[in-house]
Amino acid sequence: MAANMFVVPQTRGTVLCCKCGISMAPNPANMCVTCLRSEVDITEGLRKHVTIMHCPECDSYLQPPRTWIKAQLESKELLTFCVKRLETDLKKVRLVNAEFIWTEPHSKRIKVKLKVQKEVLNGAILEQSYVVEYVQQDHMCEPCTRSQANPDQWVANVQLRQRVSHRRTFFYLEQLILKHDAAVHAIKIKQMDQGIDFFFSNRSHAVKFVEFLGKVAPTKSRHDKQLVSHDPKSNNYNYKYTFSVEISPICREDLICLPPRVAASLGNLGPLVICTKVTNNITLLDPFTLRQCFLDTDQYWRHSFKSLLGSRQLVEYDVFNVEVVSPEYNFGGSKYVLADLEVARVTDYGKLFYIRTHLGHILKPGDRALGYDLYGANSNDIELDKYKGLNIPEAILIKKSYEEKRQKKRGKPRAWKLKSLDMELDESKGRAQEDKMNLEYEEFLRDLEENPDLRFNLSLYRSRDYQPSEMVSVSDGDELPSVPLEELLAELELSEQEDGDDSMRE
Q: What is the DSSP letter of 349?
């Protein structure tokens, strides 16, 4: 546009309000906002008081007709619930905004401020805010009512079992369950021989828990139901459901002799292999070739084999000579180096063994290692007998031993701790069984200190009983494995937040 061109200034026209006569911008009703609101109330006929049912036990609200929704005060879920209770009213207007107005938590009142719009006289759009007061009436939901009437009354039972002589797997699963709140709906947890029983008040909660177990461990399950009562008039049936979940007996650090068919399907792996990791897959390592393979749940249960030797049969060896024969290999964050070793049992120096191991990166002369004594073992394994002419090594080392260094630190508390499930213990076994469990739990804690991969998915918390003045490093040659302080500080921040919300369980 030329700079010297004359432009007519545009002015916005105004009109006088037909009621009060003030100057205003024109609108279809020719009325100012004040007069329009005095003439028309778009909130007329909308409910300002609503009664809602609240369960004080589980802090949930009734969504008619029978659905209970868990929601905290002033949460997004509670605001959505409150707005849905006005669904019939909001069909008459257009909802623009909704927000809470603060009330005392013990007042049994929830106030929500709503901003709505509606078309009024001659097409004018009027916007108005109003407050809806929700009155809470305490009414226990059906699961809480059943639990209060009889705390032991359950609908579904998950029986978790593993056919092994130790409980290390259950200690690990307990921490996974706590971290993911997988058993938050369990009304009772009971320790059983070779397993744990979980009791639920709803079948869907048990099904969800079984699905969780299948994602963290190689399991197989079956289920059954028993008729409790039947109403022929209404055709209602009440059942009790039982889910039997079995965990694979293969554990970490077990020595396995693979069946010929399984070894062939894995590219002629082994047949003597070590289990290095167990999730929903089983990780197998050949300690003589450093080949690694994975068995998924379906593959394992199709052939279902057992361990040749377990962690309770580990023997301590002294290392005299180390000769590295391969470069370092890295498999999924785990490092391995092939080396030829000269070792002898700690209890018998009269016999020297010359073996090959995958621990060449951490063992040096003078160290001690834990391994399986195949020279003196009397094995009756069926799968091992199928391999004719197999050259069986005299020993297979599994991990480095720190027992001698732990003796010097015995009695000193750890800087960290773990939570535990609210579990009903089996006291029928006596003191001997309790001492055995305490020893196995101590071994599990040592495994967490020695293996960072094992504690990667777990939550470790700083112990309040531990004095900061005692936090010194071990300086006697080789440092004793411990949990880094950085991991505990990160978990400490989380635990403080949980304490503030009254949701941390010791």
A: E
How many percent of the chain have pLDDT more than 90?
Answer: 35
Q: What are the tokens at 122?
A: 């001659």
CA distance linking residue 242 with residue 245, whole number of Å: 10
Q: Where are the alpha helices (DSSP H) in 68-226?
A: 76-84, 142-149, 168-180, 203-216
First vs last C-alpha separation in the chain: 77
Distance of CA 414 to the CA centre of its chain: 24
DSSP 8-state code for residue 412: P
Rounded CA-CA distance 256/295 in Å is 13
Residues 421-431 pLDDT 10s:
888 887 767 77
- Could you identify the residue written with the tokens 């978990």? 491
Angle between helical axes of 431-450 and 168-180 (0-180°, round to 10): 70
Is beta strand 67-70 parallel, antiparallel or unpaired with respect to 94-101? unpaired
Predicted local confidence at residue 322, as pLDDT: 92
Q: How many CB atoms lie within 10 A of CB 48?
A: 10
Q: Which residues pair with 420 in a beta bridge?
A: none
Residue type (1 letter), 476:
D
DSSP assignment string, 204-251? HHHHHHHHHHHHHS-EEEEEEEEEEEEETTTTEEEEEEEEEEEE-S--
Residue among 123, 121, 99 nearest 111 (CA): 99
Which strand (E) or helix (H) includes residue 25?
none
Task: Give the DSSP letter string of 459-491.
Answer: --EE-TTS-GGG-----SSSPPP---HHHHHHH
